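Weekly puzzle thread! Below is a chain. First person to post its structure in token form gets bragging rights.
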Amino acid sequence: MTPDLSPAEYRALLDLLFIGDTVLHSYAGDRPETETHRRALDKLLDQADAYGCGDWRERRDEGGWGFTERMERESRANEWLEDFEDRTFWEQLIQRLADRDLRRRGEAADGEPDAAQQRRRRLAERGYAREFDINGLDHVELARPLHGRQ
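Winning reply:
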């Protein structure tokens, strides 16, 4: 199956492929279980010249195709990844702090939280969200100093 794509649609597909490839290989590198994904990416990047995107891909030392620095500069994919990472960081921090506070007060749910527990969690999350919106991490301190610091 070969989709009928315009050059703009192909560039949009490359954005999606870059994001997916970055997420898949960011921390673990190339893994045997992702070889099928790598082959599919190579097949799609093989067609880059036909869509005027040959300068968005380059041969990798280990074989196959990779994305060029030019693609990373011209595409908005990195910007979207950074936005996603930033949003994920704050959401996870807020959720984990709210859960920690509920556990400390003995208000955490053992199983599925009831309506009151959900409400308390939402209130705690809103409080942290408001604090971080206003002050970022400026008011965050560790209860114990790190090793070697006073």
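Puzzle host: Confirmed. Bonus trivia for everyone else. Residues 2 and 44 are 10 Å apart (CA to CA).
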